């Protein structure tokens, strides 16, 4: 493997830290060119001292000043703002971009990486949920290589026929012998909780995921299963799958990360311990393999792997995501933007747990359906969804 130059967007987050952990194990294979963070300036400065990037990027001037002070005397140049994120995602000397910013803020830099033909290691699923059609088009038009970091999509990628990802494939699952994608879900912390106690769920309970340690937003999304809904939409774009070709299966142990069912009845799966360093190392080294620092899977010790169908009464957000996908146009972007607002309001204790799905349903009913012709249309829909969600949150919060 030749030396790869890397930009890590969202370096201070859960995926970013895991990425740098893998990178640190292979100093002869990876060179860090740029890192980005948002609020955790001390952590970003520490990462810069360890990995010596050429650039460190933050979003606002005050943070930049603080970071500059911490990095005085080092070779790292501090840059500010969304344009700077796009700049470090598209530098000619960068081969690969880890897109691990959370939320809609990750879209523009991920697009910049695709438009400059990078290897895009995509953790930011919101990019595909919001703008899947535009992003996939940019990947094709600019010969970018797209590698999914989300563990399920990484598992599907590994279980699909390799020819499916070569250029000029016809993008037809059936023509490649694939019948369905089976997307596994842990079911989160509330899979077996009494239905009539869901109303009492606190933010602390919602972010305590049984198998994974992740950022707060995705942890709440996992509790509501909106995360799986977003992943269905993500899979639709990544694998050119129709909604009926994607089935969600609950698998509480999070060992089978997803499966691909073939026309002859074969089902191929990728298994590993629930540790994001496995899909991260896979994508960093692809098509080679490198050590990720994870524990080896001990199936005899785990003993039992179980599967069940999801209950949409318990997890209405999953149903809303299928609805948004069927509605098409701006509906997934609306769902995504409204979800960011309601999750933040829930974490701030402004709305109760059950209001997450209720508010999303109301926003979708009011706004869904507009066709989308440009990225600007999507941005307009995103803003309208946030405003409508905020109105509903304010009206309902105590
Ligand atoms: P975290 O919240 O842990 O990290 C988010 C990163 O983005 C941090 O570096 C944060 O900076 C930065 N950031 C936050 N807001 C902004 C903004 N507005 N502009 C620029 N940077 C920002 O999230 P995760 O690492 O958990 O998730 C990252 C992405 O990966 C998400 O899209 C998530 O859905 C996806 N993902 C995560 C998985 C996981 O296991 N964690 C699994 C699969 C997908 P700072 O912390 O310095 O404020
Ligand atoms: Mg996932």
Task: State the main characteristics.
alpha/beta, Rossmann fold, 45% helix, Rna Polymerase Sigma Factor, Chain: A, binds magnesium ion, binds NADPH dihydro-nicotinamide-adenine-dinucleotide phosphate, four-stranded mixed sheet
Secondary structure elements and pairings:
Blueprint: E1 4-9, H1 14-24, E2 30-36, H2 41-51, E3 55-58, H3 61-70, E4 77-80, H4 82-90, E5 96-99, H5 107-115, E6 119-122, H6 125-141, E7 145-148, H7 151-159, E8 178-185, H8 203-206, H9 216-224, H10 226-238, E9 246-250, E10 256-262, E11 267-271, H11 277-285, H12 299-302, H13 316-327, H14 331-347, H15 354-367, H16 375-396
Parallel strand pairs: 1-2, 1-5, 2-3, 3-4, 5-6, 6-7, 8-9
Antiparallel strand pairs: 8-10, 10-11
The structure holds NADPH dihydro-nicotinamide-adenine-dinucleotide phosphate and magnesium ion.
The site of magnesium ion has 4 residues, from helix 7.
Structural commentary:
This protein has 398 residues and is of the alpha/beta class. The protein has 3 domains: 4-148, 3-Layer(aba) Sandwich (Rossmann fold), CATH 3.40.50; 151-274 and 288-318, no CATH class; 328-398, Rna Polymerase Sigma Factor, Chain: A, CATH 1.10.1740. It is built from 16 helices and 11 strands. The chain has helices at 14-24, 41-51, 61-70, 82-90, 107-115, 125-141, 151-159, 203-206, 216-224, 226-238, 277-285, 299-302, 316-327, 331-347, 354-367, 375-396; strands at residues 4-9, 30-36, 55-58, 77-80, 96-99, 119-122, 145-148, 178-185, 246-250, 256-262, 267-271. A 7-stranded parallel sheet has the order 4-3-2-1-5-6-7, sandwiched between helices. A 4-stranded mixed sheet has the order 9-8-10-11, with helices on one face. Helix 10 packs parallel to helix 13 and helix 13 (316-327) packs parallel to helix 15 (354-367). The radius of gyration is 20 Å and the shape is globular. NADPH dihydro-nicotinamide-adenine-dinucleotide phosphate binds at residues 10-16, 37-40, 59, 100-102, 105, 123-126, 150, 212, 214-215, 218, 276.
